[in-house]
Specification:
The complex is a heterotrimer of chains A (about 350), B (about 350) and C (about 325). Chain A is an alpha/beta fold and about 350 residues long. Chain A contains 12 helices and 12 strands. An 8-stranded mixed beta sheet of chain A has the order 6-7-8-3-9-10-12-11, with helices on both faces. The longest helix of chain A is centred in the middle third of the chain and has 18 residues. Chain B has about 350 residues and is mostly helical. The chains are: A alpha/beta (about 350), B mainly alpha (about 350), C mainly alpha (about 325).
Chain lengths: ~350, ~350, ~325
């Protein structure tokens, strides 16, 4: 299952369980008026049962597309899965029939989307939409049983008065409640894998905490492995066990969450950490990463990040050679940078305790 | 570009932040500054990206040319229009020349009677071409007048909003309540027609409503834009703001709609003339031609068919062009062609 | 919802009132209603004076308006210009149902066909079917109604002449002796078929384009993506989740269309010689009977306002997001 050239990644535990989802060298592109968009360009990672894998990146980094693609939710045209493997419980999703994928979706693999206002059907009652998900996958569940289960689910995620709320429409719910209903819908069939695509991005900061709680409750109830896609590092810090960092359609760093924050080993990750405003220290200026994310139609040659990279300094290798994703630290810490070693010994500024050799 | 040597200092290297550096924050020396770029590296060319800046109109033009049907229609329509304009040059006969010897002939190449002749021996091809000319005249006047009225009403309603908007829109709704054709017929019956210019003006007085609605919608949203506020703050008068700042941005939907009006105007004028309430002889009209042929339609089918086909062809081309314009000027419509 | 309906009904009254003012003053403004009669040697001075007295034409214009309104409400719109014995409303009562039959037939069929074409075009976007449907729609928009009517008439007449097969009738509302009950209605259907086909073309073109656009928008929406992500069968996603939402604007447009067609089928009805609102109106125009014209305009305006209301109520009923209270 693990590709020959890519090292397997694993959490630092004694027993090494089999990954529940294995993505190998996934390439997805879109044909548009302006050219071919290389949305996902050779992405590889694993998800292990019970863990929460965070995927971090800017808009357009390919973090959502890779998930949508393996579930067959990308319209093909204009999208196209060029190559790759996505092994879920021993079967390759990319080779699966449409019918097989449909059976998985909402059943063993479920997704929570970003904007709950537009992601719920406005003319159908919320309770009905959740019950529908249940009855689509469990033939033996009758209407009454489905309704009862739905109400129980709503209660689990923290929707007040669930029996009354069952008959309401999405526009009668608040934003936070809608997202909670979405989460309830996702775990309705006790999925093995839950994919949360920017679950809090469209919501107020004050609501985000509630959604976090709902997600945690959902995870506890279903024991599902979770893929958490977000650009919010705070969410990652709270929920994730391991983290994948993506840039311009590629994986640039992969490690567990503590190491990511303490000792990032890719200049992009460093830049991300650095751009966070800190509450504990006086700072006069924010430090964003300079420049713009590259066009996915005409990507810069060599390393996609090099035009904005402080580490590169215009070195030829960065400009001509694409850096492979390689092991750079213990416990399967991967980084895609030619000069990642130069970051060794540095600690990100988010960590208070100094790492030897650095001054912050 | 020479390869700069990597500093062996484990500290993050701090290179001088020149005035053309891309960094936003001033680098404090000694700090782990991340955002400084070495001098002399041009971000754009460095990464091999080519930035071609295109103006908005160039994009629109490019999109229009992509619409194949619109391009074909443009050519066909141009041919038809020119035929109408130069009618007396290309028609083998005049509009009213009668020739009883050759009356009631089916279409043939003999004696250039391409569309046949009618009961009085008049060459139908010539009559149709002159009819096209009249349609052009009417369509031009109707479109111009109704576009001007519609834009004015819509602009004023949208810009001033409030009670001005309310009144103007109620008035527009009122006009819409009355069935168009019926009103036209009423006007025609009591005012009297026959003259293409008169017919054109009557039509224009009904057709401006759709455009007014759209322009009003545009202006209502445009007035919230910052450049309007800026212009107001700079002391520009209302009229100036409306016509120099806002109108150019609303041009897209106006052009698309005006194109559609041309088509509807031609169809409506044909209908009016067919019923006898529109353009009367001696002025030629395609609708009237169809009326003329109605009685002998079963036997002399060409009398009804050719004027009708001409109308269909003209309006079809106009609609395709309108569709192409909509593709070009409406940025919200994006279609990916795989 | 009920309060909304009542409120709209009350609001309709000033609208109709304003429409009546507009109608009256514009029709009377275009000229003397008796102008044609005065020039006609057949009408004696005495007749003209009678008419003037009956219609209060020597009173100031606003008084005339008052009389007209009174006639409209209490006296069945009064009598036509030249037939003091009859009432305009009785004529209207005869022609309105005929028009309604035609419009109902045409619009319901057009809706069914148009929606089906639109949905299928959207699901199979850029397919041959889609291009064919699009071309058909554009043709529909470009075709003059009267020309299509004539062509259809020619076609079916020639079929009858060549092969002696009468499929549909090309003119009239009913045959000489259609019989009773179901036979009457079959005969009526045969007479209305071609006129309905004529009207339907434009409507089908409109509805299929509109439905296609609406469906495309819905099919790319987030909630349809959620429905797919739930693992629902594609058919269900299309029919239950997508179609329901996409139908909303189309249904309201068709209600508005219906109202407009009451007065808008003039050409079709006159070509096919149906005894409906159209020929009645044309007849009044030809004889320059201002009173029939005004009554006719008033009725059609009322129909439009009524169907506007129906469209709004329908919209509120189908879309739970709209709550008018």
């Amino acid at each position: 299952m693990t590709g020959s050239a890519t090292p397997s990644t694993r959490p630092s535990a004694e027993r090494v369980p089999e990954p529940i989802l294995s993505i190998r060298d996934l390439v997805v592109e879109f044909a548009t008026e302006d050219g071919v968009v290389h949305a996902v360009d050779g992405v590889t990672y694993d998800v292990f049962p019970g863990e929460t894998l965070g995927i971090v990146g800017e808009s357009g980094s390919g973090k959502s597309v890779s998930q949508l693609a393996i579930l067959g939710l990308i319209p093909q045209p204009p999208g196209r899965i060029l190559r790759g493997e996505a092994q879920f419980e021993g079967k390759d999703l990319l080779k699966m029939s449409k019918k097989g994928l449909r059976r998985l979706r909402g059943g063993q693999v479920a997704m929570v989307f970003q904007d709950p206002m537009t992601s719920l059907n406005p003319v159908l009652k919320i309770g009905h939409q959740i019950a529908e998900a249940i009855q689509a996958h469990q033939d033996d569940v009758g209407d009454k049983a489905a309704k009862e289960r739905t109400i129980a689910l709503l209660k689990l995620v923290g929707v007040p008065n669930p029996d009354r709320r069952y008959d309401q429409y999405p526009h009668e719910f608040s934003g936070g409640m809608r997202q909670r209903a979405m989460i309830a819908m996702a775990i309705a069939n006790e999925p093995k894998l839950l994919i949360a695509d920017e679950p809090t991005t469209a919501l107020d900061v004050t609501i985000q905490a509630q959604i976090l709680e709902a997600l945690k409750a959902a995870q506890e109830e279903s024991h599902a492995a979770t893929i958490l896609i977000t650009h919010d590092l705070g969410l990652i810090a709270e929920l994730a066990d391991r983290v994948v960092v993506m840039y311009a359609g590629k994986v640039v760093e992969l490690t567990d969450v503590k190491t990511l924050f303490a000792a990032p080993r890719h200049p992009y990750t460093v830049g991300l950490m650095d751009s966070l405003p800190r509450l504990t220290v006086d700072e006069e200026w924010l430090r964003p990463i300079p420049g713009q994310p590259p066009s996915l139609i005409s990507r810069p040659p060599g390393c996609a990040f090099h035009p904005r990279c402080f580490l590169s300094q215009g070195r030829t290798r960065c400009r001509t050679e694409e850096p492979p994703l390689r092991v750079i630290g213990p416990d399967g810490h991967l980084s895609a940078c030619h000069f990642a070693e130069e970051l060794v010994g540095q600690s990100s500024k988010l960590v208070d305790e100094p790492v030897a050799g650095a001054s912050s | 570009m020479t390869e700069t040597k990597v500093d062996s200092d484990p500290e993050f290297p701090v290179v001088g932040a020149g005035p053309d550096s891309a960094t936003v924050s001033p680098a404090t020396p000694g700090a782990a500054g991340v955002a400084d770029l070495p001098d002399g590296i041009d971000l754009v060319h460095e990464s091999g990206l080519e930035l071609k800046s295109r103006s908005q109109w160039a994009y629109a033009r490019r999109r229009f040319f992509r619409h194949r049907l619109a391009m074909v229609s443009l050519v066909v329509l141009a041919i038809i229009l020119l035929a109408g304009v130069f009618a007396n040059l290309i028609t083998p006969y005049s509009f009213a020349a009668q020739d009883f010897a050759h009356s009631g002939q089916a279409p043939t190449f003999k004696a250039h009677h391409f569309f046949g002749t009618d009961v009085l021996g008049r060459d139908y091809f010539s009559r149709v071409v002159y009819g096209i000319r009249t349609s052009e005249k009417v369509a031009l006047i109707v479109t111009l007048v109704s576009t001007i009225i519609g834009t004015l009403v819509g602009a004023v309603a949208g810009y001033y909003s409030g009670w001005v908007d309310n009144i103007l829109m109620r008035f527009t709704d009122l006009i819409l309540t009355l069935p168009g054709l019926a009103v036209l017929l009423t006007a025609a019956a009591f005012i009297g027609t026959g003259n293409p210019i008169r017919v054109a003006f009557i039509l224009a007085l009904l057709f401006w409503t759709g455009l007014a609605r759209i322009v009003r919608g545009s202006f209502l949203s445009l007035r919230e834009k910052e450049y309007v506020e800026a212009a107001k703050a700079a002391g520009s008068g209302d009229l100036r703001i409306m016509f120099r700042h806002m109108l150019p941005n609303a041009v897209g939907p106006i052009v698309v709609n005006a194109t559609l009006i041309v088509g509807i105007a031609i169809l409506t004028e044909a209908a009016l003339s067919f019923l006898g309430f529109g353009i009367q002889p001696p002025n030629p009209s395609l609708g009237k031609l169809i009326n003329d042929g109605q009685d002998v339609a079963s036997s002399m089918w060409w009398l009804v068919t050719f004027p009708g086909l001409t109308i269909v062809l003209i309006v079809l081309c106009i609609n395709f062009i309108g569709d192409g314009l909509r593709d070009a000027l409406d940025p919200t419509q994006r279609r990916t062609r795989a | 919802m009920v309060t909304y309906i009542i409120r709209r009904l009350l609001y309709s009254i000033p609208v109709l009132f304003a429409a009546s003012v507009l109608i009256f003053f514009s029709v009377t403004a275009v000229g003397d209603p008796l102008a044609a009669l005065k020039q006609n040697p057949l009408f004696s001075q005495q007749t003209i004076h009678n008419i003037q007295a009956r219609k209060h034409l020597n009173d100031p214009i606003t008084t005339q308006y008052g009389y007209w309104i009174k006639d409209a409400v209490t006296n069945k719109f009064g009598s036509p210009l030249l037939q003091p014995g009859t009432k305009i409303w009785d004529d209207l009562k005869r022609v309105i149902p005929h028009t309604l039959q035609l419009v109902l037939l045409a619009e319901i069929l057009a809706l069914l066909v148009g929606v089906a074409i639109g949905v299928y075009s959207a699901i199979r976007q850029y397919s041959i079917f889609d291009y064919a449907a699009t071309t058909f729609s554009f043709l529909g928009f470009a075709m003059p109604v009267f020309w299509l009517a004539l062509m259809l008439q020619i076609l079916f007449t020639n079929i009858f002449i060549k092969w002696h097969v009468r499929i549909f009738y090309t003119s009239g509302l009913s045959s000489q002796d259609p019989g009773g009950g179901i036979h009457f209605w079959i005969d009526r259907l045969q007479h209305l078929a071609i006129p309905a086909m004529t009207l339907m073309l434009l409507s089908i073109a409109q509805y299929s384009r509109f439905m296609r656009a609406s469906m495309l928008e819905v099919v790319n929406s987030d909630y349809v993506r959620t429905a797919r992500a739930k693992g629902l069968p594609e058919r269900r996603v299309t029919l239950k989740h997508a179609l329901r939402n996409a139908l909303i604007p189309v249904v309201t447009v068709s209600a508005l269309n219906f109202g407009a067609l009451i007065g808008g089928a003039v050409i079709t009805e006159s070509i096919f010689q149906l005894d409906g609102m159209g020929p009645y109106f044309l007849g009044a125009l030809l004889s320059q009977d201002a009173y029939v014209v005004m009554a006719w305009l008033m009725v059609t305006a009322t129909a439009v306002v009524a169907f506007n209301l129906i469209a709004d109520v329908l919209y509120g009923y189908i879309d739970p997001r709209i709550r008018y209270d």
